[in-house]
Amino acid sequence: MKQSIAIGVLVLVGAVGAGAFALTYKPVIAPRDPAQKPAFDQALVRRGSELAAVGDCNTCHTAPGGKVFAGGLGLPTPFGTIYSTNITPDPETGIGRWPEAAFQRAMREGVDREGRHLYPAFPYDHFTLVTDDDNRALYAFLMTRPAVRSPAKQNELPFPLTLRPVLAGWKLLFLKQGPYTPDPARDALWNRGAYLVEGIGHCGACHTPRNILGAEKSHQAFAGGDAEGWHAFTINSASPSPVPWDVDTLNVYLRQGWHGLHGVARGPMGPVADNLAAVSDQDVKAIAVYVADMMGHPTPERRQQGEALATAAPRDSTGSKPQSGGSQTVASAVPSGDIGAAIYASACAMCHESGRPVPYGGMSLSLSTTVSADSPRNLINLLLAGLPAADGKRGPIMPGFAATLTDPQISALVSYLRANFSRKGPWPDIASPLREARAATLASNTAEAKP
Fold it and tell me: Least C-beta-crowded within 10 Å: which of 28, 40, 141, 241?
């Protein structure tokens, strides 16, 4: 009897071991000879360039001050910091020895050429939807970039997350391999938008909340998420935007990074909009069509409220109020003791009530999604860091107040803006996100100060 039990246990252990091996093992793909320069059709390379722009690849794979696509950017996650890798064709530290089959596998299965499972900070749960033809174009584009020697940085993760086979279990639970299947009930433009948004654009990676294992909550798609110290707004039917979005306003916002009725793209969304400026009009329009459809049609009451706000907002004069004259910065009278109102009148109203159109004047804050959002984090980030002018690009600018306003003053201003420019109730906690934003600003300034 004991012998039979022992044999049964051994069989069970063996079966579990074999299953685990089958689940985690991925073979090495033979390297290509980097001395053999592949010849790619220029049209294929151009298509890969646009797809890389939609995927925002340069943002994650470029460290501050580093070479483009050479990796090294630290991506903060709830589990630790993961550093992006070098995707230039350098043979030793990049993908110069990767044949196309290895690139296709990385995009589709999240496995590198050596057979190692990749962390889902590389959003292969979205990239798996990309077609083989488009992966071929991306590969052609990356393999024709300048090779940069840039060794991978060590990820900062706790045990057992340092063990790559653990990621096979994550994939078993959350990775549904593609490619994208078009919806026959929708037209070609909608399907193109869905393909880009859900696939290479990986919009849900920021705009969808995640569970405790770091996977997107599929039943809360596009319900808003947090990324790199910013709140990615809800972009489904629960959008907090005071004025409902439509295809046209989304198209303009995605193309230029701001819209006078909605605000400016900041945080991780800023470079996304920068990259979309290089994408074809048709693809940006397709993205706008799909996102607008996810948001749905606003109720008649919400549409009327939005139209009333848009009509009431001063946005088409050259500065009709005294405090809009630039040098005539006379603060309006404010209720006694209201610190937030006093700061707004002396530091904000001169632009935001000037009547000048965006980007030459500040937008009416009653239109701002940031002021009406679920979280105050983005508003705090903006107040601390401002909107620095971008070289060679027209866009909104705003001074930062990190060095001039104390935490109680920032809190008072945030509360005032919420109470006076939004229909939403007060945020329950301002102190915590303010403390986190201060720490992030300090860390950023320290990093920039290093030689």
Answer: 28
Cα-Cα-Cα-Cα dihedral sign, residues 439, 441, 446, 450? positive
Cis peptide before 123 (omega within 30 of 0): no
Q: Which of 127, 121, 126, 124 is nearest to 82 (CA)?
A: 121
DSSP state, residue 111: B
**DSSP-based helix, strand, coil % in the chain, nearest 5:** 45, 5, 50
366 CB neighbour count, 10 Å cutoff: 20
Q: Does an H or E element contain 309, and which?
A: helix 300-312
Q: What distance in Å separates the CA atoms of residue 433 and residue 183, rounded to the nearest whole number?
A: 41
Tell me the pLDDT tens digit for each residue of 423-444: 999 999 999 999 999 988 766 6
How far apart are the C-alpha atoms of 266 and 392, rounded to whole Å?
A: 17
- Mean pLDDT throughout 192-198? 98
Comparing C-alpha atoms, which of 81, 89, 215, 222 is closest to residue 154? 81
Longest dimension (CA), the chain: 97
SS (H, E, C) 143-208: HCCCCCCCCCCCCECCCCCCCCCHHHHHHHHHCCCCCCCCCCCCCHHHHHHHHHHHCCCCCHHHHC
Q: Which of 172, 238, 176 is nearest to 208 (CA)?
A: 238
- 3-class secondary structure, 210: strand
Cα–Cα distance, 368 to 358 (Å, whole number):
12
CA atoms of 316 and 321, how far apart (whole Å): 13
Counting beta carbons within 10 angstroms of the beta carbon of residue 30, is it exposed (0 to 12), middle (13 to 18) or buried (19 or more)?
exposed
Query: How many whole angstroms separate alpha carbon 439 and alpha carbon 58?
Result: 26
Distance CA 257, CA 441 (A): 22
pLDDT of residue 37: 82
CA dihedral 415, 417, 418, 423 (to 10 degrees): 150
Q: Residue 191 has which token pair?
A: 């399907």
- Beta-carbon contacts of residue 336 (< 8 Å; ≥ 6 apart): none
